[in-house]
Design goal:
alpha/beta; Rossmann fold; 2 domains; 6-stranded mixed sheet; 4-stranded antiparallel sheet; 10 strands; binds adenosine-5'-triphosphate; binds magnesium ion
Length: 271
């Protein structure tokens, strides 16, 4: 049963440098079921962030009959009680401590201060950062800051979480660690997640399904079920085969967009 569903979504932006309207998304239909972890992959500029913004109710889509629904109800505005969004450039407020950053989204909720604190600690515990609760962002590493941003999204305890390249700026190893933490947290907490990444390894590791976008205009080229058993082992032959398969789909998507395909052989972990 689909929790979030997008039907025939198109988006046209006005491009000022070309003085014309450009179709960024064309007729994108997509759904994520309860507790499903769906990854969106696609060339840069194909409209993944735009699509996530539309799912979140932050950006309107073209008025041509398309719609986004959550549990069958049309989304016309942000739904903070239903949908958490970790942006591509999620940042922590430097003047707030780690715990105050995690509490941020809860401050508008009808909760007591003690409840808020307890909730924030629960998620800091999950990612091993309780000891850093009173640190300021400048006193922690980039990887820790991403964990805090992750906690801030999880602490909202929404049924749906949208994540736009949440670990994009991290080194490969920290990224892999956070990826496996996220996989176990999501299994435990049972959330529906739509996750954008450029990393094929991350997609293969995390996704129950992977939707590959082609560009100009962005369309879902293929929607693949990830049958790798869990727990997944990065570097196992089956894992590598699946990453190779994703790489081929992505090369196809890039070619369709008129970009030169990558010539390098080994795709593991990059696009
Ligand atoms: N507010 C806007 N006004 C005009 N054009 C926009 C706007 N937002 C996005 N675009 C255009 O829409 C296209 C898709 O952008 P988007 O950020 O969704 O791509 P993306 O797939 O997330 O790329 P990346 O992988 O680099 O993050 C780009 O050509 C971008 O310039
Ligand atoms: Mg983006």
């Amino acid at each position: 049963m689909a929790v979030i569903q997008a039907t025939k979504i198109s988006k046209t932006f006005y491009n000022p440098s070309e003085s014309r309207a450009v179709k960024t998304l064309d007729d994108v239909s997509f759904s994520a079921d309860k507790d499903e972890f769906v990854v969106l992959l696609g060339p840069s500029g194909c409209g993944k962030s735009t699509f996530l913004n539309i799912l979140a109710g932050l950006t309107s889509h073209d008025r041509d009959g398309g719609k986004v629904t959550v549990h069958g109800r049309t989304v016309l505005a942000p739904q903070p009680d239903l949908i958490a969004y970790m942006f591509q450039d999620s940042i922590l407020y430097p003047w707030r401590t780690v715990i105050k950053n995690v509490e941020l989204g809860l401050e508008t909720r009808a909760m007591s201060r003690a409840e808020r604190r307890e909730r924030a600690f629960k998620y800091l515990d999950l990612v091993g950062l309780r000891a850093y609760a009173d640190h300021y962002p400048r006193q922690i590493s980039g990887g820790m800051a991403q964990r805090v941003a992750l906690c801030r999204s999880l602490a909202l305890e929404t049924e749906i979480i949208l994540m736009d390249e949440p670990f994009g700026a991290l080194d490969e190893q920290t990224r892999a660690t956070l990826g496996s933490e996220l996989a176990s947290i999501c299994r435990e907490l049972k959330r529906t997640v739509v996750f954008v990444t450029h990393s094929l390894a991350e997609a293969a590791f995390l996704g129950d399904r992977i939707a590959v976008f082609s560009a100009q205009p962005g369309r879902i080229k293929i929607d693949i079920k990830n049958n790798l058993p869990r727990p997944r082992v990065m570097g196992s032959p089956e894992f590598r085969n699946f990453v190779d398969e994703l790489w081929l789909h992505l090369q196809d998507a890039k070619q369709q967009a008129g970009a030169a395909p990558d010539r390098q052989g080994s795709p593991l972990g990059a696009t």
